[in-house]
Amino acid sequence: MSTRGEPWRRTARAFHFRADPDWAVPALERAGVDCCALANNHVLDFETEALADTLAALDSAGIANSGAGPDRSAALDPAVVPVGPLTVAVVSLTDNTVEYAATADRPGTAYVDIDVEDPATRATVRECLHRARAHDPDLLVASLHWGPNMTVAPPGRFRRFARWLVDAGVDVVHGHSAHVFHGVEVYRGRPVLYDTGDFVDDYAVDGRLRNDRSFLFDLTVTEEGRPTRLRLEPTEISDCAVHRAPPDVAAWSRERLRERSAPFGTTFERDGDALVLDVDEG
């Protein structure tokens, strides 16, 4: 969110995205956004000046953020958000665009390879989670911008990584990047959303994959912060805005989600146009 900076030219980039903070910040506020995950493949599209403006705009609006910063240490810090009586900590990581990775003396993203066998990855993620747990959160969310565009299922290494995160204390794995929703898994009573697809976007629509269709993912937790139920309301993008999906689109999305979740042993109940999943362990 910036009007400054020049398009990134240090490496080849097909797209360069930015938004004027004078309208982008009020849009986030009106939508009730409390937290932004910034570890992604576009946050440096207009170089470090625009990243600095993005961070300043969010901080000025009181919108917590994680995943990017003026250096690696700042990028690994969690966002901490009060939700009613609960404290929620969000860590944000990406395996996209290694040239955007923050270092000890360079702004950028919290970058990791998605590989649980990589000692560097384990060390980085453990450091990130340690910082989050220092805030004694009731709910710990890992938001991951991982993998390529236009896929319908995660690779095996993503599944291993997600389970490792839950074993390390993460309560919700929130995946995104593919522009297409993937299946949902429940592991040890914790929801793993491998990819939530697009919610608001202006990309061209793939007529087969339908990246204009997804869900509002509504998670219910106990007073202690334990996830209990996931409700998925079908959505559709039109005119660069999100809408409730009409009945035929909702049916298409429900069918696709059931198909993509079946390999994880996940089944849903129907509630109107929505799908409901009880995530309590056991």
UniProtKB/TrEMBL annotation:
Transmembrane segments: none
Source species, domain of life: Archaea
Similarity comment text for this entry: Belongs to the CapA family.
Domain Capsule synthesis protein CapA: 1-203
Record-linked Pfam families: PGA_cap
Gene source species: Salinirubellus salinus
Gene3D superfamilies: 3.60.21.10
Name by which UniProt lists this protein: CapA family protein
SUPFAM superfamilies: Metallo-dependent phosphatases (SSF56300)
InterPro entries found in the cross-reference section: Capsule_synth_CapA, CW_Biosynth-Accessory, Metallo-depent_PP-like
